[in-house]
């Protein structure tokens, strides 16, 4: 199997390449290495992938349809896993055009390339953000997601609709992945685990929004990769489907902070703030659909995941 992974220098892309390269014939990764967060971390992830004989990295932007088509023509992929996206809810308030270019135009180029080069299977990153302010928990893929409260969420909902259309028209099997608050070693600096660990170890205050009255379905990276791999390898799924990939058990923000405190051996100095625009009070994944489809059962709890992240963070930054 020849597989393309977009967002190869990203958090989930890096982890997936390490896992998939053990079984795939050839893995090609592309990334534009944008500066949304520290590019050195992205380059470090790529260095961590050096030495994998069946992995090829190409620096490219999904918005450049001509380059993308050249890559597809050269490699003739059996499957594409689209993880490249402009991420982050809060950043979308200040930089909306970046989200339309990467998440809408870029995704359209992926769909067109899959169509034109007869790629039979496409997995793509959606997000738990599509559930918006829904009070109907746990969040189920059967419920309506027609009321996003951030442009980021709107672009991810658009991706699901676009994928459905291409699946219907051109027979491409499309599988949407609604990720729930992914964390772990090599994680993103704009995410809570990274930000809290960095601030606590440096003796700086952490910003705690909605005065701590938040909860998230924190999902460890290894569990995420397990779910994606199971879907990639599974035959007989519907032509178009969407799955929640989360832990299935939300954790309050304050309990999450306590887990980071325990892992660092230090106490957080909390700066309590109001709710931020575009944010939601809770996320909670109903993962029954993914269990029924591929037997997905997440196993890493926040205390263990926090300890693993802090261990990696200390090693990476030589603390």
From TrEMBL:
<feature type="domain" description="NAD-dependent epimerase/dehydratase">
    <location>
        <begin position="3"/>
        <end position="246"/>
    </location>
</feature>
<dbReference type="InterPro" id="IPR001509">
    <property type="entry name" value="Epimerase_deHydtase"/>
</dbReference>
<keyword id="KW-0520">NAD</keyword>
<dbReference type="Pfam" id="PF01370">
    <property type="entry name" value="Epimerase"/>
</dbReference>
<protein>
    <submittedName>
        <fullName>NAD-dependent epimerase/dehydratase family protein</fullName>
    </submittedName>
</protein>
<dbReference type="InterPro" id="IPR036291">
    <property type="entry name" value="NAD(P)-bd_dom_sf"/>
</dbReference>
């Amino acid at each position: 199997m020849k597989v393309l992974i977009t967002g190869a220098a990203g958090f989930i892309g890096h982890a997936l390449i390490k896992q998939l390269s053990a079984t795939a014939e050839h893995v090609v990764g592309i990334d534009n290495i944008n500066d949304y967060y520290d590019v050195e971390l992205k380059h470090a992830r790529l260095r961590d992938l050096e030495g994998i004989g069946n992995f090829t990295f190409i620096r490219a932007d999904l918005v450049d349809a001509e380059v993308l088509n050249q890559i597809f023509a050269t490699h003739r992929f059996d499957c594409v896993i689209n993880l490249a996206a402009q991420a982050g809810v809060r950043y979308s308030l200040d930089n909306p055009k970046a989200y339309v270019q990467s998440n809408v135009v870029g995704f359209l180029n992926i769909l067109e390339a899959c169509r034109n080069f007869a790629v039979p299977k496409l997995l793509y990153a959606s997000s738990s953000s599509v559930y918006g302010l829904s009070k109907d928990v746990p969040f189920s893929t059967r419920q309506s997601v027609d009321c996003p409260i951030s442009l980021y969420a709107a672009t991810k909902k658009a991706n699901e609709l676009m994928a459905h259309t291409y699946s219907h028209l051109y027979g491409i099997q499309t599988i949407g992945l609604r990720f729930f608050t992914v964390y772990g070693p090599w994680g993103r600096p704009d995410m809570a685990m990274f930000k809290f660990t960095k601030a606590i170890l440096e003796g700086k205050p952490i910003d705690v929004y909605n005065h701590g009255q938040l909860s998230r379905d924190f999902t460890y990276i290894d569990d995420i990769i397990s779910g994606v791999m199971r879907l990639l390898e599974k035959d007989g799924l519907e032509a178009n489907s969407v799955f929640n990939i989360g832990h299935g058990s939300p954790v309050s923000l304050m309990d999450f902070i306590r887990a980071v405190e325990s892992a660092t051996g230090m106490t957080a100095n909390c700066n309590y703030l109001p709710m931020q625009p575009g944010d939601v009070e809770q996320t909670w994944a109903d993962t029954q659909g993914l269990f029924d489809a591929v037997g997905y059962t997440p196993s890493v709890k926040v205390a263990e995941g926090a300890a693993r992240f802090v261990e990696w963070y200390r090693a990476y930054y030589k603390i």
